[in-house]
Specification:
This protein is α/β, with parallel strands linked by helices. It is built from nine helices and five strands, in the order βαβαααβαβαααβα. The protein has one domain: Rossmann fold (3-Layer(aba) Sandwich). α6 crosses α7. The two termini are 20 Å apart.
Length: 195
C-alpha cells in the first residue's frame, strides 16, 4: 500500500522544517524530515560517513543510501506505532531532492500535494541558514561557501522536481511571510478538497 503523502518543498532555509514540525503535531499527520534522519546518524556508520562527506561540501547524499535510510526509517516508525500508513498522511520534508529520487519514491508514496515554500531572496535564505546554524549547532549551515553551494545544488538538482509533480499538485506558498502567515496559508490549502 502506497503512503498518502504531502511534500514540503523549497530551498534550504525556506521554512520546511518549521512548518513540518507544526503539521506533524496535527492528528492524522506525521512529519518526517530527511535531513534530521541524516544528522542523527553517527559518523561511525556507513551512511553517516557518506552524509558527513557530502554535506560538508554542500552536496546531496547519493540516491541509493538516501532512499535506503528513508525506507528503514519509515519501517521502524511503523513498527514502533508512531506512524500508520492506513490512517496517517506523511508530511515529507527534504526528499525527494532530485528527479532520480522522485522516480524511486514513486513506488512507495502517493503524493497528493506539493507545498512549495517559495523564497526568491537568496540573501534572506542564507541569513536564515546562518541563524539556524547558531541556534541548532548545524555545521552544514555555518559556512557561507557551503551555503552558496547548497543553494546552487537546490537550483540545479532539486527545483526541477516541481516539474516532475506538475502544476496540478503544486501549491506555491510565500515563504518570505512570517511563520504564522505561512502556516495560515498552508492550512487554507489543506482545508480545500484534494485534486
Amino acid at each position: 500500500m502506497k503512503i498518502r503523502t504531502i511534500l514540503l518543498f523549497g530551498a534550504p532555509g525556506s521554512g520546511k522544517g518549521t512548518q513540518g514540525k507544526i503539521l506533524g503535531c496535527l492528528p492524522g499527520f506525521y512529519h518526517l524530515a530527511c535531513g534530521d534522519l541524516f544528522r542523527n546518524l553517527t559518523p561511525d556508520t556507513e551512511v553517516g560517513k557518506i552524509f558527513l562527506d557530502y554535506s560538508s561540501r554542500g552536496q546531496l547524499v547519493p540516491d541509493e543510501p538516501t532512499i535506503r535510510l528513508w525506507q528503514q526509517s519509515i519501517q521502524s516508525f511503523e513498527q514502533a506505532g508512531r506512524f500508520n500508513r492506513k490512517t496517517d498522511t506523511l508530511v515529507l520534508d527534504g526528499i525527494p531532492r532530485n528527479l532520480q529520487q522522485a522516480g524511486l519514491l514513486r513506488q512507495f508514496v502517493n503524493v497528493r500535494l506539493v507545498l512549495y515554500l517559495c523564497c526568491a531572496d537568496l540573501k534572506k535564505l542564507a541569513g536564515r541558514l546562518q541563524r539556524r546554524a547558531l541556534r541548532e549547532n548545524r555545521l552544514d549551515d555555518a559556512n557561507v561557501k557551503v551555503i552558496r553551494q547548497r543553494l546552487q545544488t537546490y537550483e540545479s538538482e532539486t527545483r526541477p522536481v516541481l516539474d516532475f509533480y506538475g502544476p496540478k499538485l503544486v501549491r506555491t506558498i510565500d515563504a518570505t511571510a512570517t511563520p504564522m502567515n505561512v502556516l495560515r496559508e498552508i492550512l487554507t490549502v489543506l482545508a480545500k478538497p484534494s485534486p
